[in-house]
Design goal:
Blueprint (H helix, E strand, L loop, with lengths): L7 E7 L4 H12 L6 E7 L5 H9 L6 E5 L6 H11 L4 E4 L5 E2 L3 H11 L3 E11 L5 E4 L7 H6 L13 E3 H4 L12 H12 L3 E13 L5 H4 L1 H23 L1
Parallel strand pairs: 1-2, 1-4, 2-3, 6-9
Antiparallel strand pairs: 4-8, 5-9, 6-7, 6-8
Helix pairs in contact: 7-9
């Protein structure tokens, strides 16, 4: 594959990932109906490089680019490393333990190609638990800028591993590693409130989101609440300055 001409880059940070989860995530990407992509897997656990590298290498797929980190910098830094290496005009984010629906990339690429006024797009998700039970995770389909901005005060309006960015919309913006839990929420806010990027979610279920004990959002609930308050405070200050 000629990576200089690839349209889509898929960025997936991994960290000490359970082999079964990792294989399910990788296979859900490789089996997509949309096939023109590079797949950047960024290993943020250098102490586990051999095991994880062997799992990834077992797929022998030319679209995979293995990027080992020298130190554990966290998911925000690992994501940024992948974004910096990405050659595509679109960048899809993916988590190491989730599962893409088979037509996810096809639907998102089609939407961004047909709607150039949108800088990024997410979708709906099905959350599933180890016992096999599941729950629908619904995200707002924004019909206006006002509705989109208001959604930031009703929870996180996008699920990061369902997002596909237009690379030109990201420009030089990246995930802020100072946020340990809400770096995605912060990036979405800066894109929309500071850069006036329009975004929405598709009505389609694009992702199966895995709930388990290691989910950062569950183990660091209080930190997430604190970071959310900080980001919302920034939004209010920014909008107040604009109104003046």
């Amino acid at each position: 594959m000629h990576y200089e001409s690839v349209k889509l880059s898929v960025v997936m940070p991994i960290y000490q990932t359970n082999e079964i989860y990792l294989r399910e995530a990788i296979e859900s990407v490789l089996l997509q109906t949309y096939v023109d992509f590079e797949f950047l897997i960024v290993n943020d656990s250098p102490q586990d490089n051999v095991r994880l590298g062997q799992i990834v290498a077992s797929y022998d797929d030319g679209r995979i680019i293995w990027i080992p980190c020298k130190v554990n910098g966290g998911i925000a830094i690992a994501s940024n490393i992948g974004i910096e290496r990405a050659q595509g005009s679109f960048i899809a984010m993916m988590d190491h333990d989730d599962i893409c629906s088979l037509a996810r990339f096809e639907r998102q690429v089609k939407f961004l190609e047909e709607n150039p006024e949108f800088g990024f797009v997410g979708g709906q998700a099905d959350g599933f638990y180890p016992d096999g039970s599941s729950v629908r995770l619904d995200y707002l389909i924004s019909l206006s800028e006002k509705e989109l901005k208001q959604s930031f005060f009703d929870g996180v309006p996008f699920m990061n591993p369902s997002i596909m960015f237009r690379k030109s919309a990201l420009n030089t913006l990246r995930y802020n590693s100072e946020y340990k839990v809400c770096a995605d929420y912060d990036l979405f806010a800066r894109l929309i409130f500071a850069q006036n990027i329009m975004a929405t979610n598709l009505p389609d279920v694009l992702l199966r989101y895995r709930f388990h004990d290691a989910n950062t959002s569950l183990t660091q609930y209080l930190l997430a609440e604190q970071e959310t308050n900080q980001i919302q405070h920034w939004i209010l200050q920014h909008e107040s300055l604009l109104n003046k």
